Amino acid sequence: MEDVTGATADIPAGGVSYVEVCAEDELWDGEMDAFDVGEHEVLLVRLDGRYHAYDGICPHQSVSLADGELTEAGVLICSAHQWQFDAASGNGVNPATVCLTRFPVKVEDGRVFVGDRPVA
Ligand code: FES
């Protein structure tokens, strides 16, 4: 497994199943897309060749984050009320007190896989 993600070090203990979501070259740096992973809508973001996966639903009022904007500075902005998140960590930018829920990601043989449960 090639470690090109920001989340593989925190894979949840026991029983995570990975779901193939796309080919590695389907997302370019600075792009994001939403995928169904189990019962979750997951937002996959590619930044500097690394993949990051988050719960794709905004923690504010449950709008899909895939409808938002990803800036060149790597800030994810929700389309509804412009809450902002650091797309490399999921940490809140504005407001700083709210973070995105991360999901584990791995890349194998040019395919991107996302775990079916959040990082603990
Ligand atoms: S729903 Fe995302 S900022 Fe309000």
Characterize the structure shown.
The chain is mainly beta and 120 residues long. It is 0% helix and 41% strand. The protein has no helices and eleven strands. The strands form three sheets. It has a four-stranded antiparallel β-sheet, with no helix packed on it. Strands 5-6-7-8 form a four-stranded antiparallel β-sheet, with no helix packed on it. A hairpin with a 5-residue loop joins strand 7 and strand 8. The two termini are 21 Å apart. FE2/S2 (inorganic) cluster binds next to loops.
Features:
120 residues, mainly beta, Rieske Iron-sulfur Protein, 4-stranded antiparallel sheet, 0% helix, binds FE2/S2 (inorganic) cluster
In whole angstroms, how far apart are the ends?
Answer: 21 Å
How are helices and strands ordered from N to C? EEEEEEEEEEE
Question: What count of helical segments does DSSP give?
Answer: 0
Bound molecules: FE2/S2 (inorganic) cluster
Shape: globular
Q: Indicate the CATH topology.
A: Rieske Iron-sulfur Protein
Within CATH, the superfamily carries the name Rieske [2Fe-2S] iron-sulphur domain
What is the mean predicted local confidence, pLDDT? 91
Structural class: mainly beta
The main sheet orders its strands as 2-3-4-9
Care to count the β-strands? 11
Q: Report low-confidence residues grouped into runs of 5 or more.
A: 1-10
CATH class: Mainly Beta
Helix content: under 10%
CATH architecture, by name, is 3-layer Sandwich
Radius of gyration: 13 Å
Number of domains: 1
**Strand proportion:** 35-45%
Biggest sheet record = 4 strands, antiparallel
